[in-house]
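[worker-b] picked up task from shared queue
[worker-b] task type: protein-ligand structure
[worker-b] ligand name resolved to pyridoxal-5'-phosphate; SMILES cross-checked against name lookup, match
[worker-b] sequence length check passed
[worker-b] input payload:
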Amino acid sequence: MRYVSTRDTAGLPGKRFSDILLEGLAADGGLYLPESYPAVSAETLEDWRVLLERDGYAALAFEIIRLFVDDIPDDDLRGIVDRAYAPTKFLDPAIVPVTAMADGLWLAHLSNGPSAAFKDMAMQLLGELFAYELGRRGESITIVGATSGDTGSSAEYALRGKPGVRVFMLSPLGRMTPFQQAQMFSIDDPAIVNVAVEGVFDDCQDLVKELNGDAEFKARHRLGAVNSINWARLMAQVVYYFAAWLRVPGDEPVSFAVPSGNFGNIAAGHIAREMGLPIHRLILATNENNVLEEFFGTGRYRIRGTEETLATSSPSMDISKASNFERFVFDLLGRDAARVRSLFVDELADGEFDLSGTPEFAGQLDRFGFVSGASTHQDRLDEIRRVLADDGLMIDPHTADAVHVARLSGVEGRIVVLETALPVKFAETIVEATGQEPPRPERFVGIEDLPRHVVEIPRDANALRALIEG
Ligand SMILES: *Cc1c(COP(=O)(O)O)cnc(C)c1O
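[worker-b] inference finished, payload out:
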C-alpha cells in the first residue's frame, strides 16, 4: 500500500505508511490518501462479525489496519493495536458498544476512552505507532499542538510516558470548560507541558504555525503534529464504522449520522463506504458553524473568518474551515490533483469555491451518499432532554446535534448516530437542558482538586521557543 498527496500534480511515486506517519502534511501542502481503497467482500464481513464477537475490537482493528500498513511486521502491528485498544483502557470492554434508541435510531459509543471523547479512538493508536516508529529509527519528536478542548487531553493521555515523545500543548487561557482544564492540567509528566496562552484558540494555532514556519527551529527540535490531518487517525477511525455496522443486527445497509467539524470523523465513514461496507447515507451534522452543511446543500464551500465563527454549546465543532475536507473533494473529482490544487490553493485564497454547476456535485448523492443538516443551541437542548426522557440516556451536545439532524433527515432505514463525547465534559449545557448533573465516571472523580501543571505565556512565539528550548 502506497500513499499519494491530494495535490500531487507531478505524479511522484507513492510513499510508505511509516514515512507519512511522521510527516503529517505532504510537502506540497496536500493530504495523504492511499493510492486505492482495499475492497472488503460480504464474505469477509461475515468472518469479521465472528472475529469481533469472539476476539474483540482489537482483533478486528488489526485485520482492517493491516490492509493499509505493509511496512510494519504483522507481529509488531498486532502488539501496537492490542496495546492501543486494551479493553481495560475503556469504560466498556466492548470499546465501541451500540445501543438501540426508542425510535429506530442506534447510538455507537465512541467516547469510552481515557479522555471521554471519540478522538481517543484514533489518538490511542497514533501514540503507539509514534512510539514504535521512533524507537525503530532511534529518533525523538516534539509535538507542538493547539487545542480548544478535546484534542489536547486526548493527545496527552495517548502520548504520556511514550519514549522519545515530548508534548507542548497550547490552549487559550481560561477558555476551556473547567472539566477540560482539569483533565489536561492534572497530568503530571515532565514530557507533557501544558501551555496556557493569553489569547483565543486562533492565537494558539498561529503560534504553532509560526514555529513550524521556522525551518531551522523545526528541524533542530524535530517538531511534529498530531492534528486530524494525519492519515493514521483516519485509518484508526475506519475501524469503528465496521464495528458498529457489525454490531447492529441484520446485514442490510445502515446510515451513519456524524457530528462534524474538521471532517475527520465522517471522512473515515466515506472510506469505509468506499471499501464496500454497506452504508446507505452519510448524514453530516453541523452546529451553527455550518460550512459543511452549506457545501452539501448547495455545492458552495465558503470558509469563515474568526469574527464569523461562533462560540457554541458544541465547541469541538466550532470551525471556520474543515481541514480534512480536501480528501473528500479529491475523491469527488475523480482524484484530479490539478483541480484540487486549483480549488484549495487558488480559489480558496478568496475564501470560497463553488462546485454547484459540476456533474460531480450533481452525482454526489448517488455516488457518495452524503446528506447534511444543522442544529441550533435550542435544538440540542431539546434533543438532550428528549433522549433522557425517552431512552433514559444522557447524551452530550455534539451527539445531540447528530441525533437532531438524523431525525429530520428523512433518510430511511436504520441510522447509527456516532456519540462523540461523554456529557460530563459539557456539564453546563446538560444542566441547562435537563436540570441534572451528568453522571461522572469513577476515573474522573475529583480531578478538579488535583495539582495543576500549566505554564502561562503571552501571545508571543519567542516565549514559546524559550519554553521548548528549556
Ligand atoms: C473533534 C470533535 C468533533 C468533530 O469531529 P471532526 O473529525 O473534526 O469532524 C465532534 N464532536 C466532538 C466531541 C469532538 O471532540
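[worker-b] attaching auto-annotations
[worker-b] The mean pLDDT is 95.
[worker-b] releasing lock
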